[in-house]
Amino acid sequence: MNILEKHNLVKKLISAAAMSFALLSGTYLVNNQTTQMVQAARRVVHVNTVSGYNHYRKLANRKGTHYFGYTAEIASWAMGADNYTMQGKHHNDYDGNMFPDADIVGTKTVNGKHFFIVDNHPGHFLVLANDYYAPTSYQVKRGQTVQVWGQEETHTEDGDIVYHNNAIRYLKFHGGKYFMVLDKRGSRNTFTDANGVVYRAVVESDGTSNFIKQSDLAKMHKAAHTYRINGAKFNKNGRLIGGIN
User: Fold this and answer.
1) Which of 20, 28, 168, 237 is positioned for an S-S bond with 67, CB 3.0–4.6 A?
2) DSSP 3-state assignment of 197?
3) Total-model pTM
4) Which helix H or strand E contains 215, and what residues bound it?
């Protein structure tokens, strides 16, 4: 081997070592396939846009288990989102919060359902990908009255929440009230009563959650507003423009 060949070999070895280091430091390493323990990533991506939410839901539609090379910090906008084990079984020991900030480290598909893998050191759990999306801000039009309803719930012997299809009258608001409307695809974000009336989940500026009739929502208009809950901000078209804290 001449001097030039030796020089080229050294360059190749150095390049290979550098590439291995980059891959190891920039991606997650599965340490144990049973427990799915992974090494923490160094890069964090904050997702505060509609396109960002859509991007990660699209990633979750891939089959199999995929770990990102970074942590995506986004919020779940669902009415009582469910939590699942890494095997896709529902957690009976605790229920999800309404808008938890989650460190999402990958995606997983179980029995055709698409999940995000959430870091919960030293382990992980799953949440439905469709519980993650950007909500929309609406305002009640001047002179319009909107009936707001709560939803009745009980618990089974196993501790699971059971939601009843009969709504409870809660209170009324007049023109000027703002609502953050949750996407109908999220867990428990819609329900239909015994008379066939469809209700959508809404959140007031202070974080109070209730339901309004789909027919009333259609009469409202999208508007700019800032919510104390998670610092969510919306432009004049009611679209999320960042600020989730």
Assistant:
1) 28
2) coil
3) 0.71
4) helix 214-217
Which of residues 109 and 122 earns the better pLDDT score?
A: 109
77, 54 Cβ separation under 8 angstroms: no
Q: Which residues contact 201 (CB under 8 A, 6 or more apart)?
A: 79, 181, 182, 186, 188, 189, 190, 209, 210, 211
Q: How far apart are CA 83 and CA 76, in angstroms?
A: 11
Which of 202, 208, 235, 232 is CA-nearest to residue 220?
A: 202
Report the pLDDT value the prediction gives residue 117, as an integer from 0 to 100: 95
| Cα angle 77-210-200, degrees, rounded to a multiple of 5 | 70
Residue 108 has pLDDT above 90, yes or no: yes
Residue 20 CB-half CA count within 13 A = 6
pLDDT score, position 115: 95
Q: How far apart are CA 176 and CA 148, in angstroms?
A: 14
H or E, element range at 5: helix 3-26
Distance from C-alpha of 116 to C-alpha of 74, rounded to nearest angstrom:
11
Q: Other C-beta atoms within 10 Å of 184: how many?
A: 13
